[in-house]
Amino acid sequence: MSTEIQQGSAKAWGGRFASTPDKRLEAFNASVDFDVRFIREDLRGSVAHVRMLGRQGIIPVEDARTIEDGLWKVWDEVTAGEFALTIADEDVHTGAERRLRELIGPVTGKLHTGRSRNDQVATDFRLWTKDALLRLISGTLDLIDALLTVAGNNPDAIMPGYTHLQRAQPVLLAHHLLAYVEMFGRDVDRLKAALRRTDVLVLGSAAMAGATYPLDRESVARDLGFATISRNSMDGVSDRDFVLDALAAGAILMMHISRLSEEIIFWSSGEAKYLTLSDAFSTGSSIMPQKKNADVAELARGKTGRVYGNLMSLLTIMKGTPLTYNKDFQEDKEGLFDTVDTCLIVLDVVPPMLTTATFNTDRMAAAAVGDFILATDVADHLAKRGVPFREAHEVVGKLVGECSSRGIAFTDLTDEEWAEAHPLFAEQKPPLTALESVSARDVPGGTAPNRVRAARAAALEAAAEERAWLKGAQTRLANVMSRNSTGPGAG
Ligand code: ARG
Predict the structure, then answer these.
(1) Beta carbons of 99 and 125 less than 8 angstroms apart
(2) What is the 199 CA–ligand 1 centroid distance (Å)?
């Protein structure tokens, strides 16, 4: 390795330096190869900033207009795929400004009045994250839709519900799926909460202490569609909670998808055979010709690991950083990019995997009466007739033990054997079908068919409301990020 200094290129901060940086530092320090993902956000933030500088008379209005026009030219080059950043640009902010200078000359220098890259990077990343969160919400709503569709297609299917992965009590398949709808509904909620904390304008923090110019931060917030402005300049440039919120919401979302995947893998196994995946969403083996694997579900479960890792990584990066900006923060981006990319591709493939699968409702129904799964109903039968539940539990427990040692089911017992187990069984035999069992669970949150039907209807309505909200939020952001966006309007 050479100890010689290897000359790199000139920098925006080069004034106080006698030499240009070493090439190795340049490569190590640069973030262009990933922060280029928010070049549009960077240009749009600059447009809002320079408009405000003009309105406030901080720079001449004509200069502001020249700079804004130049920024849109760079925007058009980006759209046309004609503008490339290089390592020498260091980061997206400096690269965009470099190109602007090439197009409009020295007046470019007035753009960076009353702001720093610290505000810029936080602003760009917040704008990018807002869009990412909306896309994640959209994908999560697709998944909710898929679950509601499958539930609607199989309204009467009964399957075993499990605890400890042992058959516990019969439930409707729709009830089981609606449990996941609850989880993903909470994910939507969490993503919206992350969005609320992301939706803050930090431009105007100017490095860390606030700017010495009469910046109108409120109007910049309106121009960029931020709901509010940050209250503290030091927090403004060093807060990465919004990234952590997004990473955490993504991690919990993936945890839920992973649990659902685990069900799919089990349900499609040769042991359960509750469902058959469509050929389009399963894969084969290169050696075993009979194999049909649930790779989509397994890969979704597996990808949960990296999404957890991204959260852990940024928590660790942030924990030792004093106020305010530290270069460590540059490490905040790739993890969120990866989390968002991963969640989105998983959300793209899991819903169609679900809606194209065939549920083998006969297999499920058969399993939903085996293994003494109705034992609780038999005990309830006695308890409803005055036997203390603990005692009823004991009686039925004994009966289960006896039947299993004889290798028979409840339905094989004679009337005499029932009467022998408890005299109350002589008066009326307990319910011995899965349908009676689920129908009896007629409480809010229970698996009785009427309750499940109502729960599905309510979930459909809630999902439609979220969709309507999402559409509005996406339209507002698209207007902000449009080439024709005109400015903040009146406060
Ligand atoms: N690339 C930097 C980052 O991602 C941009 C901010 C640079 N600010 C600075 N003071 N060096 O955080």
Answers:
(1) no
(2) 20
- For ligand 1, the distance from its centroid to the CA atom of residue 330, given in whole angstroms, is 6
Segment (H or E) for 171:
strand 166-172
Please tell me the predicted confidence (pLDDT) of residue 490: 66
Residue from 16, 31, 129 to probe ligand 1 pocket by mutation (most atoms less than 8 Å from CB):
31
The contacts of residue 272 (CB under 8 Å, 6+ apart) are: 266, 363, 367
Nearest to 215 by CA among 91, 223, 63: 223
| Nearest atom in ligand 1 to 31's CA | 1
Ligand 1 in reach of 121 Cβ (< 6 A): yes
- State if residue 91 touches ligand 1 by the CB under 6 angstroms criterion: yes
Q: Tell whether ligand 1 has an atom less than 6 A from the beta carbon of residue 374.
A: no
Cα angle: 210, vertex 215, 221; to 5 degrees = 95
pLDDT tier, 14 (very low <50, low <70, confident <90, very high otherwise): confident
DSSP line for 91-138: SHHHHHHHHHHHHHGGGGGGTTTT--HHHHHHHHHHHHHHHHHHHHHH
Please tell me the distance from the alpha carbon of residue 137 to that of residue 446, in angstroms, as a whole number.
Answer: 28
DSSP output for 275-294: EE--GGG-B--SS-TT--B-
Residue with token string 């058009």: 76
pLDDT at 347 over 80: yes
How close is the Cα of 230 to the center of ligand 1, in Å? Answer: 19
pLDDT for the residue 272: 96
pLDDT tens sequence across 47-68:
999 999 999 999 999 999 999 9
Which residues are known catalytic residues? 164, 285
The tens digit of pLDDT for each residue in 286-298 reads 878 787 889 999 9
Torsion angle (degrees, nearest 10) of CA 257, 259, 263, 269: 90
Phi first, then psi, for residue 486 (nearest 5°) are -100, -20
Residue 416's SS3 state is: helix
283 lines ligand 1 (CB under 6 A): no
Q: Which tokens is 281 given?
A: 């969403």
This prediction has a pTM of 0.95
* Cis amide linkage into residue 304, ω under 30° from 0: no
Under 8 Å between Cβ of 228 and 65: no
CA 119 to chain centre: 26
Does 99 sit in the ligand 1 pocket, CB within 6 Å? no
In this prediction, residue 136 has a pLDDT band, given cuts at 50, 70 and 90, of: very high
Q: With a 6 A CB cut-off, is 115 part of the ligand 1 pocket?
A: no
CA distance 68 to 221: 17
- With the C-alpha atoms ordered 67, 68, 72, 75, is the resulting torsion angle positive or negative? positive
